[in-house]
Amino acid sequence: MSQSTINGIFVPNIVPYDSKGRIDEDELRHIIRWVGDKGVTGFYPNGSMGEFIRLSVEERRTVVRIVSEEAKGRPILAGAAEANIELVLEMCNYCADLGCRAVSITGPYYYKLTQESIEAYFRELAAKSPIDIVVYNIPVFANEISLPVLERLAMDCPRIVGTKDTSKDMGRFQQTLHTIKRQRPDFSVLIGWEELLCTGLFMGADGGTLSSAGVVPEVVMSLYQNARAGNWDKAKQIQFELLDLFSLMVNAPNFPEGFRTGYELRGFKAGNARFPLSSAEQGVIAEMRAKLACVLAGCGFEEAAGECRVADRSAPMNVEAIVQAVLKNIQAR
Q: Which of 95, 97, 192, 307 is the most exposed place for a label (fewest CB within 10 A)?
């Protein structure tokens, strides 16, 4: 039923919009081709970065189809977190027909559910899905999937082939490797948080699905490749460089606006997001953009240099200080 273990770096791409707020299909194709040419392992459409919750069902299908057409054979781990089992299975069938490697499904969202209900939910999906499933634990946006539940699902359900963990809990991540991976070596354990990438790989992670890989695929792939080669000093050096980039983008207001800004600084047209920014937030984003441009330029990405407006590029990037300073200036006007 299942294929080989899912491993490597998968890119959760943004969805660019045109002037009328529609999906900019040409720019999306441009992004996928560009990221693919940078050597990433595969793609992760319809994740949090792709704002799947703000897209219609038909738009979500369009995104997966376009990514599939431009992936050039790279594996696709497609988001299929819909509102109920019937809709999830419809997306599973759609992704299977497109030839995706697997689907990624979060715990149910909005309503708070018991772990018993969550386990029953995934067991039913595993019994009926035509495509492999990666269980996506992201407690900030959806019901957390407890480790005991995940272990039982991994042991009992061949169709469930891995997990992506974005809990930011390194203790939980290590316990997942310790309790599940050693019992089922083919079970894929992916990290979903950039700050833990190097540590996760050191402890035995199979890879990651990382938002920064869409903005700086060169950096993330270099970290991954050095870690895989056992060049841990180099991997740690790159990890610290990645922290500045990631911190600026992830702490910007109205996630994933910071990452959309990163794409723009790399030369893409992101368009306006489908959720408004207040005037104060726009000021914070503008200040963050200038800082981010300097960090990118310092990493050798010259296309961002023109927007760098920081006198001392070596100064620490204190995101909270940036936000507070900009808000203070705005409130004083």
A: 97
Stretches in the chain below the pLDDT threshold 70: 1-2, 310-333
Cα separation of the two ends of the chain = 63
Nearest 5°: the CA angle 51, 239, 204 is: 85
Q: Which two tokens stand for residue 27?
A: 């720019």
Angle at 203 (CA atoms; ends 202, 205), nearest 5 degrees: 90
Query: Residue 266 corresponds to which tokens in the numbers above?
Result: 């790399």
> Which of 279, 278, 280, 260 is CA-nearest to residue 270?
260
Q: 147-156 and 115-128 are packed helices; what angle lies between their axes, rounded to 10 degrees?
A: 20
The torsion angle over the Cα atoms of residues 174, 177, 182 and 185, rounded to 10 degrees, is -160
One DSSP character per residue, 254-291 reads STTHHHHHHHHHTT------SSPPPHHHHHHHHHHHHH
What does the pLDDT look like over 149-195, one tens digit per residue? 999 999 999 999 999 999 999 999 999 999 999 999 999 999 999 99
Domains observed in the chain: 8-232 (3.20.20.70)
